[in-house]
Amino acid sequence: MELNTEAFALLMLLAAVVAMAAKRLRVPYSAGLVLAGIALAAFWHRPDFAVTKQLVFLVLLPPLIFEAAFHLHWPTLRRELPVILAMAVLGVLLSVAVTAAGMHWLADWAWPGAALFGVLIAATDPVSVIATFRGAGAHGRARLLVEAESLFNDGTAAVAFAVVLAMTTGQAMGPVLISQKLLVTVLGSLFCGMVTSSWILLLSTRTGDHLLEITLATVTAYGSFLLAEHLQLSGVLATLAAGIMFGNAGPGSRSLSPKGREAIESVFEYLAFIANSLVFLLIGMHEAAQPFATLLRPAAIAIGMVILGRAAAVYPICALFQRSSLRVEGRHQHILFWGGLRGSLALALALALPAELSQRNDIVTTAFAVVAFSIFVQGATMTPLLRRLGELSPPAPVNPTSETRS
Fold this sequence. Notes:
With 406 residues, the protein is mainly α. The protein has one domain (50-388): Na+/H+ antiporter like fold (Up-down Bundle), CATH 1.20.1530. It is 74% helix and 0% strand. It has helices at residues 5-25, 29-43, 53-70, 74-105, 111-122, 126-136, 140-152, 154-168, 175-204, 210-230, 235-247, 258-287, 296-320, 330-338, 344-351, 360-388. The model is unreliable at 395-406 (pLDDT under 50).
C-alpha cells in the first residue's frame, strides 16, 4: 500500500467515519484513529510508507503548528512565558535525566541507548496534546500552558537529541558548546519565523483578496519551517513564531482583511484535521507491526520512567513560581502532568536513528509502546480528568475535529 491518491482517499474516508463514530460514542478522536490504523493493518497488510521524520516534519507539522500558534493571544502568552520556558527547558532536561537513568539502571540498557531514548521521548508532542485538549473542549490557563509548552520544548529536545547522538558517535560536546548550540537554535529559529512572517505580512497589505491571503499564510507556515530546517535549526519554533505574528497582526495593521482572517482559520483548521488524521492512522498501522511481546519489561519500565520524568518536569518547576503572581494551581499542575502526551515527534526521531546504532530496534519498539500508552490511557482519561477538575465547559456535544476557542 503506497501513499498514492487512492490510499490517501481511503485514509480520509476512514478518518471521516472515525470522526463521526468518535463524536457519537464520545471517545477521543486520536485514540479512535489509532485503533482504526491498527485494524487496517491487521485486516489488510502493513503499509509501505512509514512515520518518517521527513513526512512528519516537512509535510504534516507546519500546518498544525501554524494553526495552533495563529490562535495564541500574544499578551496572554507573554505573561505566562516564564512558566512555559522553565518547563520547556529545565523541565525537558529533568525528564531526560530521570528517563535515561531509569532505562540504564532498571532496564539494563547501555548509557548511549538510554540517553537517546530519554531525549527523544522527553518532549511532549504538540500533535497529540493539541488534538486531545481541543477534542475534549478544554479551556483556560491549563490548556494554554500545556499547548504552549508542547510547542516551545522542541528547541530543547532538538538540541539535546543532536548532542546525545553526536556523543554516541564519539564527538566531543562540552557545556559551552552545548549552551551555544541551544542559544543559536532557539534564537535562530525564532528569527527565521519572524523574518518570514514579517515579509509575508508586508506583502499581504497589498491585497484584500482572501484567496491570496490564504496562499500567503500557507507559504509562511511551510516557508518558515523549511528555512529553519535547512539551516539545521528548529522548524517548529520558526513556524511557532511566524504563526504568532500572523495571528496577532491587529486590524489596525491592515495586514489581513477580516474575510482573509476568517478564511485562514477555516482552511488551516481543515489542514490540521488532515494532518492529525494521517499522523494517528499511520501510528496505528505501525503499532500493529511492533514486537511488543519481546520487550514487555523494558516497555513497562519506560512507561513508568516517562511518567516519573514528567512529574519531575512539572511539580518542581511549578514550585519555583509558588510565591509569585505566576503561581500554578494544584489542579493545573495535575493537568500538566497527565497531559504531557507523547506521539509522532518521538516516533519520527526514533525511526530516524542510524540503522547501525546499537539498540536501535529496542528504542523504536519501546518508543511505540510509550506512545500507545500515552494515546490510549492518558489521552482517553484526559476528558474525565478535565471535567473533574472543572476545566471543561458544561457538558455538550463536542466535535472532535473542531477547536473550541478559549
